Amino acid sequence: MRKILLLSDTHGHIDEVILKYVDQADEVWHAGDIGNLAVTDTIKQHRPLRAVFGNIDDDKARIEFPLHNRFFCEGVDVWITHIGGYPEKYSPTIREQLRQNPPKLFICGHSHILKVIFDKKLNLLHMNPGAAGKSGFHQVRTMLRFVINGDNITDLEIVELGKK
């Protein structure tokens, strides 16, 4: 069993509220637009981190983190990327790959809009945790947390961090 904290679009922002949730997780996953490696360095001091770079990230982040991160967590095939779209409107750059080899859990960021949608056509769960940072058009900072136990994804919770 793994307790996962999922965040995205920090845009260089990390604070004690985020770290409180980091400390409650077994792993932290960041879906891009880190903004400053101080964010990921801080998270790594607390918990194991898996991350991808986003469109605003510099070459340091692009060297440290991949564009796509596909892995297994327990029995769940996970694919994290920053710009992925959502069911019926996946990004053209990955749409065919998703159709040919869909993961069980597809995660992206970029939109700053929290969404959790089950894609019946591809039999996958899509998650976008919204934005945990203070830059962007979103009004409320958000993250997601959930549990992976074997091949099950359970206990999904929206974490609201307050107004930006």
Textual characterization of the structure:
With 164 residues, this protein is α/β, with parallel strands linked by helices. It contains four helices and twelve strands, in the order E-H-E-H-E-H-E-E-E-E-H-E-E-E-E-E. The strands form three sheets. A five-stranded mixed beta sheet has the order 3-2-1-11-12, with helices on one face. The protein has a five-stranded mixed beta sheet with strand order 4-5-8-10-9, with no helix packed on it. Strands 6-7 form a two-stranded antiparallel ribbon. The longest helix is centred in the first third of the chain and has 10 residues, at 37-46. The protein is globular, with a radius of gyration of 14 Å. The model has no long low-confidence stretch (mean pLDDT 96).
